[in-house]
Task: inverse folding
């Protein structure tokens, strides 16, 4: 690893340490300064973005990627609105999560603190850079950013604008660092001791590559094979729009539904409704053979279809005989991301919620709601599909660690030990 | 991996799934049954333990290891008492951590659920086996246990007794599995998809080996180079016993203090006090050269002494000019485990708590309090020194993951999107 890069990482850590000790107010002011600076520099940012878009078009980049790459007025207003919302959330630093008296005057607290320095590798989406940077600043963490190379000019300008906007604050500008090359990413993966957490976003293969090539803890944002199960007790008219929304509202998203399971008792009523609603919106339907007569617009599904994350206007449909069978299907085919049940039956909803082992388990709404903004987390750095630390949309909370703080008056373990030792009274205190 | 072992792991997962859906009451009854069965079988257990002890002695095993290996009446009563305490803690399953209304009648909850199947590799301590098994049962997790080989006979008997005690419950006996050989451990490390979390305890080298040889998430319980800093504003008479306790109460523990930092302004008063108190208890003191005249029982310290986890009646001592210097020393020499400040000055205590980046940061008490039982967590599976998921003593909470549960009435993302979309009102609800 180049010494220059190590020096940069060390600078991020020093600035992060200062940032972690700032007041709520200073971080809010810095965020407002950041939003203002981005608004003021929008002509320059758009000019850099135009360069990136032109180069991407010349390279034959697909439309979906171009759409994400474009940093428009719309996205600008959305990210600055996001920053305002972040400022309205409670300060995530120093919050007491547990408080317990071990003995009179001997108080244990579990309090939140920033993790330290976070390395984030993400797709070519300049609006995501602003979101991630603002989450890092609000949560008191240093951030090292590597965005998709198609956005290199836009990202460079954004980091420059953000650094300038915060340079007058007590923690300075070095809490945020942009890196660009493949070599820099390899150095980031090797930066154990300098970086506390890596958050890679992208394909499963890429997330796996990161996990296999670093000793730094990783929160993986991997694929989403999401399923919506329509139970025999569903209110079909009410939930049909949510089923359609789950598929079509943004099919390229990881929280879009790929598979519909329908209880066989309602198949004759619901499958024609679903067939019509989805085919009207140009969704290609892969249905199991037995239900093809009920879904005239469908083609016959293969077993592989039920293991496929289409990320497109395409879905797989089959029937199940019970909520138990639906859960089994999801456990063996899904990706533990987001799954929904449509039902008016509380027992079935409870069973589904308890048994489906996914980050997000929804009842009677679209799987597309799995999102940090919609959840009220103040944006997200990703949606975690692993079970440790953070699960589902990762907002401010996922960027915090905790410390146990024990405050006493000279207590010794010896006096609480052995047959005649004092007992602990372990009294929970109001937080 | 042998098919037989995979089959066993699958059985653990099936039983864990049943266990995760049991009532608080059933798990409490099972724990009581487990405690009773261990008491009833104590003659058999002690007989197996005697075999292990005899073999270990014949192999020239060190006294400290023999001491941990012995499963005495004392330890038996301590683990059964631990089980009773676990039963008194609130059910960890299904607890609501966050609750928010996204819009009227559209409710988001973050609720706790068991992680699934946990693989635990630990030292030759039969009492630890019972503690870990009872934490797993209380938290609704399946557990695969590999204890130190010196305890093989005792462990085999304990697992047998525990399995028999729970076989009559709805989840059966297969939630707990004991494995023994090196090959079994290698299979465990490769069991991605069957095992959700590994918790290795042991040397740093061993924990590192596990992390480097598995794709399963790991909570590492690594070394503890703990420091106690005595500030210029300490109440010296009051805190001297806590300093001594931190060193001598159980020197082989990871939370024993290895280094004392003393503010130079109180060095002339406090160092002779510390010298006397520690040398009276047979502690070998390594002091920096400049303070040797104040610590007549000390030998001169090398720089290496301040990087050493003695795990014995030995410590290193130096002075610092400020609380800032103390924090810098701890950040560069410590292991982010447990560090303490002794002071009556609230600003210095706050600074220390905010800046020392360790799992446990204590004020005016012994570092030896870093422990799940003492913290009121109902025992611990280990003390995590990493910053993600669980930090410090890992009790029931560390064995839980969460799910986001969103319950609505057919809501679509489309209706909340775009210029005319409904806003979310994100109203926090009482938990």
Result:
């Amino acid at each position: 690893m180049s010494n220059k890069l190590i020096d940069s990482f060390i600078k991020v850590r020093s600035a992060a340490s200062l940032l972690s000790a700032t007041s709520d107010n200073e971080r809010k002011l810095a965020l407002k300064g950041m939003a203002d600076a981005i608004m003021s520099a929008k002509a320059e940012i758009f000019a850099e973005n135009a360069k990136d878009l032109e180069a991407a078009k010349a390279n034959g980049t697909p439309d979906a990627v171009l759409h994400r790459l474009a940093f428009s007025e719309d996205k600008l207003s959305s990210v600055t609105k996001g920053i305002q919302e972040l400022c309205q959330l409670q300060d995530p630093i120093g919050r007491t999560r547990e408080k317990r008296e071990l003995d009179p005057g001997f108080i244990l607290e579990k309090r939140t603190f920033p993790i330290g320095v976070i390395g984030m590798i993400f797709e070519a989406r300049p609006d995501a850079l602003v979101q991630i940077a603002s989450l890092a600043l609000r949560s008191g963490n240093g951030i090292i950013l590597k965005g998709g190379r198609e956005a290199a000019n836009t990202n460079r300008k954004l980091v420059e604008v953000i650094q300038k906007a915060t340079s007058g604050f007590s923690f300075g500008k070095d809490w945020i660092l942009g890196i660009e090359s493949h070599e820099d990413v390899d150095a980031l993966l090797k930066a154990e001791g300098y970086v506390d957490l890596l958050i890679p976003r992208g394909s499963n293969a890429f997330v796996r590559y990161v996990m296999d090539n670093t000793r730094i803890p990783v929160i993986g944002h991997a694929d989403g094979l999401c399923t919506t199960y329509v139970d025999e007790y569903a209110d079909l008219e009410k939930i049909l729009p949510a089923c359609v929304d789950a598929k079509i509202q943004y099919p390229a998203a990881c929280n879009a539904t790929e598979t519909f399971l329908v209880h066989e008792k309602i198949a004759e009523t619901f499958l024609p409704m679903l067939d019509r609603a989805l085919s009207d919106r140009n969704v290609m339907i892969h249905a199991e053979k037995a239900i093809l007569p009920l879904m005239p617009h469908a083609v016959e599904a293969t077993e592989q279809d039920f293991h496929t994350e289409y990320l497109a206007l395409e879905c797989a449909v089959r029937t199940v005989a019970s909520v138990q069978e639906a859960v089994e299907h999801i456990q063996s085919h899904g990706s533990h991301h987001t799954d929904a049940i449509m039902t008016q039956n509380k027992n079935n909803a409870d069973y589904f919620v308890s048994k489906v082992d996914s980050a997000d388990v929804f009842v009677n709404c679209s799987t597309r709601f799995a999102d940090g903004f919609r959840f009220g987390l103040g944006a997200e750095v990703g949606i975690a599909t692993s079970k440790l630390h953070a699960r589902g949309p990762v907002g401010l909370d996922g960027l915090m660690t905790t410390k146990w703080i024990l405050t006493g008056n000279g207590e010794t373990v010896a006096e609480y030990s052995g047959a005649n030792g004092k007992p602990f009274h372990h009294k929970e205190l109001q937080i």
Remarks:
- Chain A touches chain B through 74 residues (CB under 8 Å).
